[in-house]
Design brief:
The complex is a heterodimer of chains A (575) and B (250). Chain A has 2 domains: 264 residues, no CATH class; 254 residues, no CATH class. In chain A, α3 packs across α5. Chain A contains 24 helices and 1 strand. The longest helix of chain A is centred in the middle third of the chain and has 42 residues. The relative contact order of chain A is 0.07. Chain A has 575 residues and is mainly alpha-helical. The N and C termini of chain A lie far apart (55 Å). Chain B is 38% helix and 26% strand. Chain B contains 9 helices and 11 strands. Chain B has a 6-stranded mixed sheet with strand order 7-8-9-4-10-11, with helices on both faces. In chain B, strands 3-2-5-6 form a 4-stranded antiparallel sheet. The longest helix of chain B is centred in the last third of the chain and has 16 residues. Classes of the chains: A mainly alpha (575), B alpha/beta (250). The interface between A and B is large, with 51 and 60 residues.
Amino acid sequence: MGDHPIAAISFPAASDVTETTKVGLLLRTRAIATRNRIATALLEGPVRMLASLVLIGLIWYGLYKLFWAVLFQLHRTPLEATVAIPMVFNFFFVAMLALLAFSNAIILYNSLFSPKEAAYLLTLPLNPRDLITLKYIESLVLASWSLVLLGFPMMFAIVDTAGRPGIELYLAFLAFFLAFIPIPGAMGLLIAWGIARYFPRRLAKAAAIIAGLVLGASIASGFRSLSLGETATELWLREFLLRMSFLESALLPNHWVASGIDEAVAGHFPESLRYLGVTFVNALFLSWVAVVVVSRDFLTAYDRSSSSRSAGRRTASPASGGVAGLAFFYLPRPLRLIAAKDLRTFVRDPEQWSQLAILFGLLVLYLTNMPNLRLEFSRSGSLLIIPFLNICAVSLILATFTCRFVFPMVSLEGQKLWCLGVFPLQRGRVLRAKFAFALTVTLAAGWTAMTLAAVMLNLSPLWSLIHLAVTAAVCVGLCGLAVGIGARLPSFGQTSAARIANGLGGTVNLLASIALVSLILAGVGIASWRTQSIVDGDLPDLVALLWCGGAIAFALIVGRTTLRMGERHFERTEI
Amino acid sequence: MTTPLPEFAVELMNVRKQYGRHVALRNLSLQVRTGELFAFLGPNGAGKTTTIKLIVGLLRPNAGEVRVCGHEIGVNGVSAKAQLAYVPDQPFLYEKLTGREFLHFVAEMYGLSNAERDRELKSLSTRLDLLEYYDQLTESYSHGMKQRVALAAALLHRPKVLVVDEPMVGLDPRTVRVVKDLFIEHTRAGGTVFMSTHTLDIAEALADRIGIIHRGELIAAGTLAELRSQARREQSLEDIFLALTETQNG
């Protein structure tokens, strides 16, 4: 093999770029893209952006007031406050540890093993470690949003109820949050790599579903064993505290952060700083370990993940097509075809149905435990509290589903409008098909849960009917909002449902859904309270019925109006 | 600066690639000489994209070896990638960057000085007609425009090996002509072009050598004359392609 002396085809520098780190360049490019994104959003929809910020501010304020009220009540009995407040911190950071590890794992799996950006960067002379570092930092920022949303209002409430507001407390909280975030982030990075490395793609989905079901069953089992005993007694409390004591282990990160915050609130800053140091050093060490371990084997993991995407041909049962068509027998033929197409997509995508199945599976397990609780509440004369809590749980689960899966449907259709857009039907009617599909799925799930709840609680026929009607109204309202706002504030360029749901339109839909559910539940709550306290019986009086009717009418009007608004906009949309 | 190059810019030796139970490539061996424009043809699903992804280091072979400019891509990945550039059929551009910002990012990635970058960009942006869109976000670009920016990004550091997948799709006739000229100039300057395409007349007009892959196996490789001889007919590349792939199907 002879070497050819060929004239310079390559710049000298281009052959010499091998081992220089590019993390700075990648971060700088991200910063430029973020600046451009903000500038575009401000230019295209300043009012929309402002409205979103105001709504987020309102949610923060609401959460702050909620935390403040809880902490204020606890501080009224100092002995209980001494025991309960550190425990609240502990639980909060345990929940955050699990939630953020899970969020980081999902974000990192999708961004590191995606066929787009990661594939492009891997063809450049870039050390995989730089790509992983970039994606890790990006994931920490994106995933920590939930900590910011929940943590900051809690921080302000703690400072205000502690009675010694001071800048040093705010700084301490901020430092603890920043030191804590990389710990679940590193766990998420290792989980994402492990799934890509050791599980083929479809197995990864199956593993996620199984993990979700196991987690749900464990929670339900724990709940069942706790609810079987004498509820709300000293014995029950003691057993509960004993079961939860493992969370206070000095080896767990939630303990370092919770104790550090507790010490800071008590004014013991040297002790607080010690906990901060432990948290910070562990976060750095874990991040280093995770990035180094994943970098060494990343290309193999990427290859396995990419190869499994191309493996085999996927088939679908022809029977599922027929069932999908039958489910929408009540729609005119063109709309039935579109709704049936959406149902087939839903059934064939475990990512969508598995989350709804897990949430409602948990709810069913909870409902089957209710007779014990009912006995306790009937003794205390608060019989309508449990049905009300049930409808709250069902409504919030339905809101989660519509925000995450129904809202992105219109945006995802944008790529396919070359096909749908030329069908001989008004484009706005496509939205009605989406609405019909979403309503069918949510009603099936919501009514099943509420019927089971009514049977288990032996609820009176009138209250059972009221709850089923309210559930239907919640479904109409939420689906109308998700489809209508989805058409009004779409992200047609985006192909990831998760990113669409997390975008500006998704945030507006989330906030609107929370507001809608809160107002409907407020109406039902007032009716339940009035029946229990004023009427002093099981049956509602006319005023209570009017409150429920008002809540139902409100949900129907909101659903109808938003859907109509979306239809009008969708008719005019140019893609 | 004079840089010695190996005889073969791209080498695949007994490469096997499986996706689960599906064998995408069976003991593929292929050598592309330095300074050659090699056209890689094959029906849909034949293994063209898998071969390209192995060359640019996005996939790893289950068996065999892939070398770019003498560097084994699985071992010296970064060194190998510094020598090549890849333009896929659906190029990735950062949507929230302007064309200029994206090209500056790529130039810095390859370590070009600002003077080198500006000189190259001036020439490429004029030839590929980028100037009008230079400061617009790439999310507003048409497919053809994205393809032109991706080509400019690929040629910016004067790669020794340029790997392109369906380079002419979505381009207007004028740009197709410019791209053809750029490829020819690139090979004349000592660079290598590995081009996967379905457009047989472009392959026929440009390629020094042509390889045809079918069901994961290289069924023919050589100059157009050699392929005619192998197919035993004096016809166009289209007829030769159909004859060879038909024979394999039979």
